[in-house]
Amino acid sequence: MAKKGPRETVKLKSTESAQTYWTTKNKRNTTERLELRKFDKTLRKHVVFKEAK
Question: How much is the pTM?
Answer without folding.
Answer: 0.84
